[in-house]
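Support reply, case 0932

Customer input (verbatim):
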Amino acid sequence: MAEKAAIRAEAARLLTLFEGQGASVVETPILQPAETLLDLYGEDIRARAYVTSDPAMGEAMLRPDFTVPVVEMHMAEGAEPARYTYAGEVFRKQEDDPHRTPEYFQVGYEVFDREDPAAADAEVFALFHETLSGLGLRAATGDMGLLMAAVAGLTTTDRRRRALMRHLWRPRRFRVLLDRFAGRTPSPEGREALAKGDPFDGMDAPVIGLRDRAEIEERIAALREDMATPPIPEGEVELLGDLMGLRETLDNVCEHLRDIAVDMPAISDAVERFAARNEALKKRGVDPSEIDFEGSFGRTTLEYYDGFVFGFHADRHDLPPVATGGRYDALTRVLGGGREIPAVGGVIRPEVLLEIRGAGA
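Our regenerated output:
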């Protein structure tokens, strides 16, 4: 990888470019309160972040990304509409790929604008598309909003829909749950016996492990409800599979999505947002026939994306994406205490950009 001085210089160049698009330059502390990140992601974030402690702050994490602190800053004091840019280091554990550095630079561009979300999506993507042109990168897109709408429309209980939504970003776990809820696979061994039996039979203690009697009874009631719930209709499961398996260019996939929406009306609004984005991209000079769409793209990113997602990749398996981004409206609501504003943004990794340029020299 490139030397740090060269990476800093490239980050400064990108920062200046984004500032020239009307974005305000912002900075965020490297040390972030852990409470906010844990509230957002649960304990899973510990596997990806570097956790430490501070006498005043309490439990803290080295900044795993910029989006969360930028959103917090904007929701506390930002005017609307707003555009921000930033550059600096983030820190993430790389247990799945020890060859990748756990400390690297990001340069980002974020748009907070409620006037026309489709136009904002197109603005961010077109800016990155132009910035990275000429490098032979593959641009891929997806739409988490389509998948979330499809899951929300499944014919099943709220409890099952929440479980599927929670694991939407964990494809293997999601598939296991979906197959079980559809009746394709049996429940885990011992679950039926637990639901039918009395775990307190013959016991005097009101606590088992770290759970009290009320918690255990609530869990057993949920198991019984789940066992009595009919399977998700097979047709809906197949349509969801079709949606996740789509691989087409943006222009071709739109009609496919409308066909699916005939039998899965829950995604109709998301499909129309998709179509509006395609038109906005054309106005920005981006040809949808040259951009790939993947139905499951974005399912292994951080969980705050809830709409349009994108990435730019080199044709090298040893390199991470050069750039990634997407829409995160719900995150602004969570961090805004009920207030919200449509928001979309993305980041470029300058060291990967330099690596690609160097390889092509």
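We compared this against your earlier run and they match. Two observations from our side: The first strand starts at residue 24 and ends at 25. The mean pLDDT is 88. Please reopen the case if you see a mismatch on your end.
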